[in-house]
């Protein structure tokens, strides 16, 4: 990006520890000065909040643009652009696009499709098509027979900076209760009771045979390549102990208070879904993000499947949880996720940090994104 200088004035600046009315100046993509509200030139924020650009570690949203209907695959570069536009207009300036490997036998999308999307991201970056800064979060289903084969599509991709180790085997983690699992698969596959029981038994047997080795192999590769490891849907202290042994840095969507507490106290960043906060609970019946926030165990929010939920959930936490201030809430979507994946050049309004900035106006408790800048350049 070319050099640009901008002064932002008449703003509520959300700094790491306080909110002040003031102005800031950016140059060559960085914040160079933060001051009192005396400037009469530059971009007038009209009294709105000015917060750091949001850092999104886990969004499944790209697939919705690539495969918008059953049997339909959209042009991958166009899909990435559409996804990017919604991401940027939601205030997200750094996004880890979640691409999955380890598929069900009848899955419409394959690891090759994920590679196609990764290549489209690369094309979008190299041709200057994209507004946000895009990296890749590789979601690895360790209970799937083809997960290691799928990883081969990404083994030399330097854009992969985060890897989550998932296991959706029925009877544990997200599916400790089989009720929702049975309801989903009976509807999807048309199973009767006997067929459903056989399907569950086969999945449990398969996972027991391959998941532990796949988990260890993938974590070893991640450590060798300096890829940050995230656990997924931990439910017990045993799950957390295993994650610790694999040098896991992020606990994604722990399903119980017990697992969240153990993860947080071990030094892992506990990540929960922003839709969970906005809706007031988990759509799958697991522990609520609000409960973890009130207990002090919530470190990071992710938009998951609704991009605009990230900024909305942050301001909602600040409004509804007495112990969480606006700077503390904004840190959960900016500086803390950035630090968790080693991106220490962004995520806070401080001098020398990247000038990734978002202008936000609150109207009836719903945020309106009024401007987005990445490295000092307006992108939305």
List keywords for this structure.
about 375 residues; alpha/beta; Urease, subunit C, domain 1; TIM Barrel; 2 domains; 8-stranded parallel beta sheet
Secondary structure elements and pairings:
Layout: E1 5-14, E2 19-27, E3 30-36, E4 43-44, E5 49-52, E6 54-59, H1 61-66, H2 76-89, E7 92-101, H3 111-126, E8 133-141, H4 147-151, E9 160-166, H5 178-189, H6 193-224, E10 228-232, H7 237-245, E11 250-252, H8 257-266, E12 269-273, H9 274-279, H10 289-295, E13 300-302, H11 309-320, H12 326-331, H13 335-340, E14 357-363, E15 366-374, E16 377-378
Parallel strand pairs: 1-4, 1-5, 6-7, 7-8, 8-9, 9-10, 10-11, 11-12, 12-13
Antiparallel strand pairs: 1-2, 2-3, 5-14, 14-15, 15-16
Helix pairs in contact: 2-3, 7-8
Q: What is the total number of structural domains? A: 2
- Judged by helices, strands and strand pairing, the structural class is alpha/beta
Give the CATH topology of the largest domain: TIM Barrel
Instruction: Give the helix tally.
Output: 13
Biggest sheet statistics: 8 strands, mixed
Whole-angstrom Rg: 21 Å
Q: SSE string, helix = H, strand = E?
A: EEEEEEHHEHEHEHHEHEHEHHEHHHEEE
Shape label: globular
The average pLDDT value, as a whole number, equals 92
Low-confidence segments, given as residue ranges, are none
Brief summary:
The protein has 380 residues and is α/β, with parallel strands linked by helices. The chain has helices at 61-66, 76-89, 111-126, 147-151, 178-189, 193-224, 237-245, 257-266, 274-279, 289-295, 309-320, 326-331, 335-340; strands at residues 5-14, 19-27, 30-36, 43-44, 49-52, 54-59, 92-101, 133-141, 160-166, 228-232, 250-252, 269-273, 300-302, 357-363, 366-374, 377-378. The chain is 37% helix and 26% strand.
């Amino acid at each position: 990006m070319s050099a640009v200088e901008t002064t932002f004035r008449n703003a509520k600046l959300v700094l790491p520890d306080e909110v002040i009315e003031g102005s800031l100046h950016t140059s060559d993509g960085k914040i160079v000065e933060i001051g009192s509200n005396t400037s009469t030139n530059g971009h007038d924020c009209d009294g709105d909040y000015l917060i750091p650009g949001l850092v999104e570690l886990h969004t499944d949203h790209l697939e919705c643009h690539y495969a918008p209907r059953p049997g339909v695959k959209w042009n991958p570069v166009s899909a990435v652009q559409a996804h990017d536009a919604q991401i940027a207009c939601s205030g997200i300036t750094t996004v880890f696009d979640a691409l999955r490997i380890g598929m069900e036998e009848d899955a419409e999308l394959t690891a090759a499709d994920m590679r196609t999307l990764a290549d489209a991201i690369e094309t979008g970056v190299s041709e200057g098509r994209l507004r946000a800064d895009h990296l890749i979060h590789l979601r690895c289903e360790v209970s799937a027979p083809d997960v290691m084969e799928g990883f081969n599509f990404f083994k030399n991709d330097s854009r992969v900076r985060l890897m989550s180790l998932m296991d959706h085997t029925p009877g544990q983690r997200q599916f400790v209760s089989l009720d929702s699992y049975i309801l989903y698969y009976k509807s999807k596959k048309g199973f009767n009771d006997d067929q459903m029981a056989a399907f569950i038994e086969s999945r449990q047997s398969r996972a027991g045979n391959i998941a532990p080795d796949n988990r260890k192999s993938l974590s070893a590769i991640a450590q060798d390549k300096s890829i940050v490891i995230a656990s997924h849907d931990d439910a017990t202290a045993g799950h957390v102990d295993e994650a610790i042994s694999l040098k896991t840095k992020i606990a994604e969507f722990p399903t119980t208070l017990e697992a969240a507490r153990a993860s947080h106290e071990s030094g892992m960043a506990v990540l929960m879904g922003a839709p969970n906060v906005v809706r007031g609970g988990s759509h799958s019946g697991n522990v609520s993000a609000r409960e973890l926030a009130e207990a002090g165990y919530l470190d990071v929010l992710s938009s998951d499947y609704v991009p605009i939920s990230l900024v909305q959930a942050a301001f909602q936490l600040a409004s509804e949880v007495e112990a969480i201030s606006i700077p503390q809430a904004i840190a959960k979507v900016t500086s803390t996720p950035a630090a968790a994946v080693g991106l220490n050049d962004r995520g806070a309004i401080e001098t020398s940090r990247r000038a990734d900035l978002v202008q936000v106006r609150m109207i009836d408790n719903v945020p309106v994104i009024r401007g987005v800048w990445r490295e000092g350049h307006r992108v939305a």
